[in-house]
Amino acid sequence: MSLADNLEKIQLRIKAACERAGRDPGSVTLLAVTKGQPPEVVSAAAQLGQVLYGENKVQEARAKIPLCPAKLRWHFIGHLQSNKCRDAVELFAMIQSVDSLSLAQEISKRAEAAARTMPVLLEVNDAGEASKFGYAPEKLLSELQELNALPRLEIRGLMTVPPWTAEPEKTRPHFRMLQELKTEAEQILGASLPDLSMGMSGDFEIAIAEGATIVRVGTALFGPRAKARPRAETD
Asked: What CA–CA distances, in Å, run from 207 to 7, 175, 213?
């Protein structure tokens, strides 16, 4: 299938999942995961109307983004090292993978230097997988007030990558947990957190049923990569 066919199919799946969940399809945003994809492929997707893209390596993004249409929006979705925060603040409209107070402090510091406020999502690793980064739910709640007090951070919501499974339905408890954790966080902050980034190519319909507002899709849109790689923060 062509890129245009794949994009249309994904959009129809999002619409159908929203209808089943009694949600407005406009409440879910498709983020195209472009790890390993050249600028030409991104530009082709942009011509089809896709606006939001995600990268999980700052170095790759720094080389790629200037070669892509300027109208596009980019989110960082991989593990961010503190020494890459300055570049991430410069390149991205949102950082979805804030996984510690120290990282958040560094992002706020770099955003201050850049005279901007940085929208972020807090990454949650509720299964405690050693191979993945992210907050344990209890630690996130305990540090939430400190995170929210950082002057140049705007906490927009939460993000998660559930344990890999061949049966997508098994991801549902992790997505439901994130929705419940968001509600707890909103009660602590006394403010709404509008975004839940969860769901990838194989399970985004389930994520939508559980409240996802951003779904991160790579393989279903661009096809499999040249080499099989372990599942990580991207798709």
From this structure: 18, 6, 9
Cα–Cα distance for residue pair 56/216, rounded to 1 Å: 12
Nearest to 97 by CA among 117, 112, 118, 72: 118
- Give pLDDT tens digits for 153-178: 999 999 999 999 999 999 999 999 99
Which 3 state secondary structure label does DSSP give 95? strand
Q: Tell me which DSSP letter residue 227 carries.
A: S
Cα–Cα distance for residue pair 21/23, rounded to 1 Å: 5
d(CA 24, CA 17): 10
DSSP assigned state of 83: G
pLDDT tens-digit map of 104-142: 999 999 999 999 999 999 999 998 888 899 999 999 999
As a whole number of angstroms, the distance between CA 8 and CA 12 comes to: 6
The domain segmentation of the chain, as residue ranges, is 38-197
Tell me how far apart the alpha carbons of residues 158 and 38 are, in angstroms, rounded to a whole number: 28
Model pTM score? 0.94
3-state SS, residue 153: strand
Provide the CATH topology of domain 38-197.
TIM Barrel (3.20.20)
Decide if pLDDT at 224 tops 90: no
Directed axis angle between helix 172-189 and helix 137-149, to 10°? 40
3-state DSSP assignment of residue 86: helix
